[in-house]
Amino acid sequence: MEKNKENLLEKVVGLCKRRGFVFPGSEIYGGLKGTWDYGPLGTELKCNLKRAWWDYMVKQRDNVFGVDASILMNPKVWEASGHVASFTDPLVECKTCNERFRADKPADIKEHEELHAKKKEKVTWTEPRQFNILVEAKLGVVEGEKTTVFLRGEITQGVHVNFKNILDSMHPKIPFGVAQIGKAFRNEITPRNFIFRSREFEQMEMQTYVKANDKESMKIFETMKDLRMKWYLDLGMNKDRLRFREHAPDERAHYARTAWDIEYETPWGWDEAEGIHHRGDWDLSRHAKFSGQDLSYFDQETNERYIPWVIETSAGVERPLLYFLLDAYREEEDRIILKLHPRLAPYKAAVFPLLKNKPELVEKARSVYSLLATHHHSLGPIAWDERGNIGKRYYAQDEIGTPICITVDFQTLEDGTVTVRDRDMAEQKRVKVEELSGIIMKGGYLF
Ligand code: GAP
């Protein structure tokens, strides 16, 4: 690992807390394991990430539709989808301290054994048993008669149960995609690595309905794999830290015929960012059977009626978000820089008056700030800072990834130019106020 990447996860966790990206959930009450709250900057970053996904997967592609389904669904959905029977992880318990772990995560098991070994204790484990990770909730107003429902374990089923509604309202032609972004919940046995594995998280998914045909479905599967990899690269992620990995047959989820992960090289090794799954006709056939509804598609091209197959791309929001932060983190001499892609950066620019005790400078800087904030609200907010000296303000913005800092000084009052300072090169240029919008639109690249 490169020198300034030592303890990288700890450094990023520290930065996230210090600068308002991510806080432990319910912190003042001692927290709740596997939950995280997003602060002001984390909220912007998350929003930018989801928007980058939606623009790329939905708006820039043909024949793709969005839905926003309920988190709470009829419990029969989860029987049909196979999650009640098969959404399980193998659980083992340490007989010495009763802590529970996933039997299929050897690194976690080893780490725990080493902890005991330091105390000269030898660990023995219970036999693995399958533990269902669906989260239950109770609905209803009469005590004793409440219905047990599940918080959705994947957002996918909200799309498949609306397949007929999409057909009837949008009349799409196969192949077509249905996209969704939303929360999912899993009673993870071992939440860990910061936001990497939590009990409440978000997913960004595209279900593509395709002809029930091996050759065609695999062609779309390959296209989806490439499309998804390109998304990370277009957003500036280091290509040497990304790879594909195919799931072994015994590793695949119960619905998957073929599955590949996009993985990122994290400080704890290669790990999953997202999955591309060939779900065959699993979902629609099962929902047709359990609901008694006809979920077939009539193909006018071939005059055939069939249950379409599904190619799914399923990304979390938090894992890519963490990977973008890890990837962007730099220490250069005495400054910390988050070299985030400008699309992802929480603030698109920062505006400073050179001195906060000169009303004419503050007033002019405020007018530049308002101009840019009004103009660029669709890209994201603009930061304002008048505390401390300029050097400290630059460092503070570098640390949160703001692409450019704009300083209004005495020369601005005379000739309408400002100093623009670039995050990555730490170099400065004088430009006219009218040029600022163009620079922000270009992503803040000055040189
Ligand atoms: N619909 C398919 C599906 O849910 P998955 O591989 O179980 O597939 C997809 O999950 C993605 O959701 C993962 O690649 C990961 O990014 C994210 N994810 C899954 N479990 C997670 C957890 N406990 N915490 C954070 N993200 C998670």
**What spatial order of strands do you see in the largest sheet?**
3-9-10-16-13-12-11
Shape: globular
Percent helix: 25-40%
Radius of gyration: 25 Å
Portion in strands: 25-35%
Could you explain how this protein is built, in words?
It contains 14 helices and 23 strands. It is an alpha+beta fold. The strands form 7 sheets. The protein has a 7-stranded mixed β-sheet. A 5-stranded mixed β-sheet has the order 20-19-21-22-23, sandwiched between helices. The longest helix has 21 residues. It binds glycyl-adenosine-5'-phosphate.
Q: What's a concise summary of this model?
A:
The protein has helices at 8-18, 40-59, 76-80, 83-86, 106-118, 156-160, 163-170, 214-234, 282-291, 318-328, 359-375, 390-398, 410-415, 436-441; strands at residues 22-24, 36-38, 64-66, 88-93, 100-102, 129-132, 135-139, 147-151, 176-185, 200-210, 242-246, 258-266, 269-280, 297-299, 304-306, 309-316, 329-332, 335-338, 349-353, 382-384, 404-408, 417-422, 428-432.
